[in-house]
């Protein structure tokens, strides 16, 4: 939304004639707040891009201004699909944005502004788009006290203390940013939910947000604590089969809908990491979800999370969600969606796709990604996550669909990385992950490269040399992090609790799967988690075609090797290099990669504003030091087990 002034041919093209934005006349349309938002955004954006004040005109006023190029909004064209679709077409008067609903006009306006911001000429722009998924959601893990679970961008942006009396402009800018990338749902509170959020005083506050965001096409949702009937409802039970419990939730839903008629629904984390759930009463996840679904009725959706693991499953944590949920396929009510994390463990720098994708054909399944970088160096390490999400979206599940196809009836959720920091996301480059998440939820076929280029051009500079270098740097950044933290398919070696920095040596925590040693299984002989039939057999949770891709260590993508196989240190790759040698090379490549990013960034000093350039340079310095820390600590620990010398040619650079 920077709308940095254009230059050169793009500016000449935009300023050939005076510009006006035409608001439709007739019916209720001119007063529609969404169309108003679209027109305001066009006026703001075009004025800034062109360096000239752009006027807003009503239909008939505009017709008389033959000298003007006119951007016309047509927001009730039945030939365009519903649900946010739009078409942008050249016209004799300038350019038309067509949609069947106001929200399509808003999305079309943002699309036009994006194209111009990237440097395209007004007279070259034409496109028709429709969102691929119905749900494109942010999940905030924000607590009512202002703290944010796994948040690295300051405190919560939701000021519950001043709501509902005061609504900060910040909340409008937040909605604009979301709408500009197609996000249409927001869960405002942490999945580890406080029941307090369901109390009348919070419903009144939420109503104020819902009213403010409605023009931007954003529906609000709440994380619901399953034990709320007990916590705040005066009942002694939360058993979903108890009629008093069901009645309590129904009344609660009615109360919320009276305040917020388009309330989206509930997100629920149940029977996971100590959260209450139907399992506390011997009921299944489907029993719990369906009771809530009934309370909402056709008004809303229950989004039930599949992220479960408990101390009872010591064999392989990666299998637990599949074991609990796959047998429930077909048992969920129509207005229930199952939200599944991208991989079977927990947002690691690399995981194979979750085996539940494609495996529940009679359940609507949604993909949960984590935009905040809990396991990828928080906000100081630069890691552009689109390549990681694309890896999952493009993966063929083996059940006849890719992951992107399997989630089509639902959509994508992203755990937000947004906070009170002036740059919104904790670092300048982490804005790119918020951006890419929204764009992929709109269109999962977009390439990571296109997203990096779009974002870099709008955020920093349109100079082709800059965009080419910076987008290339972004595209390699996640692999670099995977290399210096968890190469070759290793996972969860971060220090316990906060998950920052290496601690593969930790092995004495009470629950086995809290320990990094549970995941790497390294000893004197070898390293890796055996998930073949001889081990935990997690491979069996995948469709045979998918499992076959990872079954043979000699013929698989080595980036997943130690996720699926436990191998001796002297095991050799088909090219003859040993596992140990390759592992050390990967760590080295990770550290060298950060040094390379530093160089690329330093090479563009002076091309963008000094303050933001310095911010990024500082963070890259931190990342460089910590990449080295990850590599050196990890290698030293593996050496303490295998007593092997550093392979030739892998001496750490000074
Ligand atoms: C991770 C994360 C927790 C979070 C959980 C979840 O385990 O560390 O903070 O609550 O995921 O997704 O529910």
Commentary on this structure:
The protein is an alpha/beta fold and 654 residues long. It has three domains: 8-129, 2-Layer Sandwich (Chitobiase, domain 2); 135-450, TIM Barrel, CATH 3.20.20.80; 483-642, Alpha-Beta Complex (Alpha-d-glucuronidase, C-terminal Domain). It is built from 20 helices and 16 strands. Strand 11, helix 10 and strand 12 (336-341) form a beta-alpha-beta unit. Helix 15 (464-485) runs antiparallel to helix 19 (579-602). The longest helix has 33 residues, at 610-642. It is globular, with a radius of gyration of 26 Å. It starts with 7 loop residues before the first helix and ends in a 12-residue tail after the last helix. 52% of the residues are buried. The mean pLDDT is 96. Alpha-D-glucopyranuronic acid (GCU) is lined by residues 149-150, 191-192, 269, 273, 307, 346, 374. Alpha-D-glucopyranuronic acid binds next to loops.
Which features characterize this protein?
Alpha-d-glucuronidase, C-terminal Domain, binds alpha-D-glucopyranuronic acid, 11% strand, alpha/beta, 3 domains, 654 residues, 20 helices, Chitobiase, domain 2, 6-stranded mixed beta sheet, TIM Barrel, 8-stranded parallel barrel
State which percent range the strand residues make up: 5-15%
Rg value:
26 Å
Overall average residue pLDDT: 96
> Could you say which structural class the secondary elements and strand pairing correspond to?
alpha/beta
**Which stretches of 5+ consecutive residues score pLDDT under 50?**
none
- State the end-to-end CA separation: 42 Å
CATH secondary-structure class of the largest domain: Alpha Beta
Q: What share of the residues lie within helices?
A: 25-40%
CATH superfamily of the largest domain: Glycosidases
- Which small compounds were modeled alongside the protein? alpha-D-glucopyranuronic acid
Q: How many distinct folded domains?
A: 3
In CATH terms, what is the architecture of the largest domain?
Alpha-Beta Barrel
If helices are DSSP runs of H or I spanning 4 or more residues, what is the number of helices? 20
Total strand segments: 16
With strands numbered from the N-terminus, the spatial order across the biggest sheet is: 7-8-9-10-11-12-13-14
The major β-sheet equals: 8 strands, parallel, barrel
The backbone outline, from C-alpha atoms, is globular
CATH topology of the largest domain, what is it called? TIM Barrel
């Amino acid at each position: 939304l920077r709308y940095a002034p254009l230059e050169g041919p793009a500016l000449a093209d935009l300023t050939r004639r005076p510009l006006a934005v035409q608001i439709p006349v007739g019916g209720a349309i001119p007063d529609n707040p969404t169309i108003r938002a679209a027109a305001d955004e066009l006026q703001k954006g075009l004025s800034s891009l062109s360096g000239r004040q752009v006027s807003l005109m009503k239909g008939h006023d505009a017709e008389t201004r033959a000298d003007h190029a006119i951007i016309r909004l047509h927001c009730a064209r039945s030939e365009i699909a519903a649900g946010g679709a739009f078409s942008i077409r050249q016209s004799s008067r300038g350019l038309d944005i067509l949609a069947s609903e106001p929200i399509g006009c808003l999305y079309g306006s943002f699309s036009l502004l994006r194209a111009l911001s990237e440097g395209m000429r007004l007279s070259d722009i034409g496109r028709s788009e429709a969102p691929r998924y119905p749900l494109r959601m942010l999940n905030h893990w924000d607590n009512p006290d202002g703290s944010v679970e796994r948040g690295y961008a300051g405190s919560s942006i939701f000021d519950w203390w001043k709501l509902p009396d005061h609504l900060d402009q910040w909340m409008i800018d937040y909605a604009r940013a979301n709408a500009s990338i197609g996000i249409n749902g927001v869960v405002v509170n942490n999945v580890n939910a406080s029941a307090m959020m369901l109390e009348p005083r919070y419903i009144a506050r939420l109503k104020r947000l819902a009213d403010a965001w409605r023009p931007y096409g954003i529906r609000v949702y709440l994380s619901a604590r399953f034990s709320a009937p007990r916590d705040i409802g005066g009942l002694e039970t939360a058993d979903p089969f108890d009629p008093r419990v069901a009645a309590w939730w129904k009344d609660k839903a009615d109360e919320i809908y009276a305040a917020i008629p388009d309330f989206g629904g509930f997100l629920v984390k149940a029977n996971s990491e100590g959260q209450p759930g139907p399992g506390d009463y011997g009921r299944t996840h489907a029993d719990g979800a369906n009771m809530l679904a009934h309370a909402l009725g056709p008004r809303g959706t229950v989004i039930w999370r599949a992220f479960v693991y408990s101390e009872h499953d010591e064999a392989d944590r990666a299998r637990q969600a599949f074991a609990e949920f796959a047998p429930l396929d077909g048992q969920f009510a129509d207005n229930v969606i199952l939200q599944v994390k991208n991989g079977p463990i927990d947002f690691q720098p690399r995981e194979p796709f979750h085996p539940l994708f494609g495996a529940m054909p009679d359940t609507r399944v949604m993909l949960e990604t984590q935009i905040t970088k809990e396991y990828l160096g928080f906000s100081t390490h630069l890691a552009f996550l689109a390549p990681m999400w694309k890896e999952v979206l493009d993966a063929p599940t083996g059940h006849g669909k890719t992951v992107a196809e399997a989630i089509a009836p639902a959509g994508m959720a992203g755990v937000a990385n947004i906070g009170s920091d002036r740059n919104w996301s904790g670092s300048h480059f982490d804005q790119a992950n918020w951006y890419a998440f929204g764009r992929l939820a709109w269109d999962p076929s977009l390439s990571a490269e296109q997203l990096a280029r779009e974002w870099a051009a709008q955020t920093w500079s349109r100079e082709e040399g800059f965009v080419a270098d910076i987008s290339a740097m972004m595209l390699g950044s996640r692999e670099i992090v995977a290399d210096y933290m968890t190469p070759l398919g290793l996972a969860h070696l971060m220090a316990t609790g906060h998950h920052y920095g290496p601690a593969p040596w930790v092995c004495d925590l009470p629950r086995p799967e809290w320990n990094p040693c549970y995941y790497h299984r390294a000893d004197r002989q070898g390293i890796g988690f055996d998930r073949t039939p001889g081990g935990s057999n997690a491979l069996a949770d995948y469709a045979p075609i998918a499992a076959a891709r990872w079954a043979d260590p000699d013929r698989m993508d080595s980036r997943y090797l130690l996720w699926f196989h436990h191998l001796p240190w002297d095991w050799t790759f088909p090219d003859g290099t040993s596992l140990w040698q390759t592992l050390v090379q990967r760590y080295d490549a990770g550290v060298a990669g950060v040094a390379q990013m530093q160089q690329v960034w330093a090479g563009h000093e002076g091309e963008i504003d000094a303050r933001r350039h310095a911010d990024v340079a500082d963070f890259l310095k931190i990342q460089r030091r910590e990449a080295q820390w990850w590599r050196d600590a990890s290698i030293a620990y593996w050496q303490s087990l295998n007593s092997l010398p550093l392979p030739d040619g892998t001496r750490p650079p000074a």
